[in-house]
């Protein structure tokens, strides 16, 4: 896996759209200046339309010429009252759907430019995914929950709310084929939600040391690519039967040695002992004390690529082959804030707050060029 980087001087680009077309070692650019700093962008390849969200809550639409040498302004959408955090465009319904820091998701008609509907949350809406067939919108927010909405012409209904993260939702990816939703969060973890199975099955993936900024699921090879703010890049093997992490059990005493926890005043008084601190085994979920969970182990089949706390009995049950990693980890060597993949060619683009854009050849680790019949250069 190798990368090429393009650096920007960062001067005066806060309110500028910069369209960069990479052609081997040289590139050309088009620039248009906006009225406010850019905060989100969506590009529709077939219609060559760009939607740019801004810090003032507006979304501006541009159309790119067929030779990519000109951008024409189309219209401005007053979508939000605060910073736009995510945008998606649906060509069949001619909707531009967006989320913002005004705690709402909005959908507007691109034909008339009028507002069709809004739905408000209790926290900033941070990211968005949309299923074009069912008109389901997945909205992640800063409280750590994901809301599934059914969007209609002038209204919407809440289907369900997904709760599992302990930090704000920073990235979402929806796979319409397998009906899987992947979410990354500031708690450094990724959760796979089996929406199509309707069984509430979730898989936890822990392999990053910082918040997960971007994720992409490659349905063809059953691999998940994730990037974190510290530059970590992980490629997860999802083409295996993984185990679901257990729910943590609650108890007033250790479920191994039966010693009381520090809030169990009655048992502490009866046994004349000091209460102990409560921990949880990541493999079985039981509430245990520190003396009964002195061991640490990785357990990749359950998503734990790093060593985590397990009770002594579970540690003995984990074999050496159970600790074999089910993901590969790579160093991006720059702060990654956004990522996009060209799955057909196995190329990935990352950009960060260090003003660097990197192009990655991912074919050695994801193998999607072989799967699609594309020969590497």
From TrEMBL:
Keywords recorded for this protein, A-Z: Endosome, Metal-binding, Repeat, WD repeat, Zinc, Zinc-finger
WD repeat intervals: 162-195, 205-246
UniProt cross-references to Pfam families, sorted A to Z: FYVE (PF01363), WD40 (PF00400)
GO BP, one annotated term: positive regulation of toll-like receptor 3 signaling pathway
Record GO cellular component, one term: early endosome
Sequence intervals crossing the membrane: none
GO MF terms held by the record: zinc ion binding
Domain annotation FYVE-type: ranges: 248-319
Identification of the protein by name: FYVE-type domain-containing protein
Organism: Pavo cristatus
Lineage: Eukaryota, Metazoa, Chordata, Craniata, Vertebrata
């Amino acid at each position: 896996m190798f990368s090429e980087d393009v650096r920007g001087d960062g001067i005066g680009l806060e309110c500028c759209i910069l369209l960069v077309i990479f052609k081997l070692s040289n590139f050309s650019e088009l620039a248009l200046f906006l009225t406010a700093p850019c905060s989100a962008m969506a590009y529709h390849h077939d219609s060559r339309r760009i939607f740019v969200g801004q810090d003032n809550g507006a979304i501006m639409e541009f159309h790119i010429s067929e030779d990519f040498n000109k951008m024409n302004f189309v219209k401005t959408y007053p979508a939000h009252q605060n910073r736009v955090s995510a945008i998606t465009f649906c060509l069949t319904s001619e909707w531009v759907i967006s989320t913002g820091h005004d705690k709402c998701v909005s959908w507007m008609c691109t034909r008339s430019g009028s507002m069709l509907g809004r739905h408000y949350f209790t926290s900033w809406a941070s990211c968005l995914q949309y299923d074009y067939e069912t008109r389901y919108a997945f909205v992640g927010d800063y409280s750590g929950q994901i809301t599934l909405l059914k969007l209609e012409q002038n209204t919407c209904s809440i289907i369900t709310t997904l709760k599992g993260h302990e930090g704000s939702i920073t990235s979402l990816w929806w796979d319409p084929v397998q009906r899987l939703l992947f979410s990354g969060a500031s708690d450094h973890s990724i959760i796979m939600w089996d929406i199509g199975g309707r069984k509430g099955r979730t898989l936890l993936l822990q392999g990053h040391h910082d918040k997960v900024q971007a994720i992409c699921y490659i349905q063809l090879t059953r691999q998940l690519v994730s990037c974190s703010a510290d530059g970590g890049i992980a490629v997860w093997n999802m083409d295996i039967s993984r185990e679901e992490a257990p729910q943590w059990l609650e108890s007033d005493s250790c479920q191994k040695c039966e010693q009381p926890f520090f809030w169990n005043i009655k048992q502490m008084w009866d046994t004349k002992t000091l209460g102990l601190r409560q921990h949880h085994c990541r493999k079985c979920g039981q509430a245990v004390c520190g003396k009964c969970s002195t061991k640490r182990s990785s357990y990749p089949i359950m998503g734990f690529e790093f060593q985590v706390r397990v009770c002594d009995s579970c540690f003995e049950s984990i074999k050496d082959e159970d600790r074999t990693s089910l993901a590969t980890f790579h160093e991006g060597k720059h702060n990654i804030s956004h990522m996009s993949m060209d799955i057909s060619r196995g190329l990935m683009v990352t950009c960060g707050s260090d003003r660097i854009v990197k192009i990655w050849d991912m074919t050695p680790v994801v193998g999607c060029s072989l799967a699609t019949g594309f020969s590497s250069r």
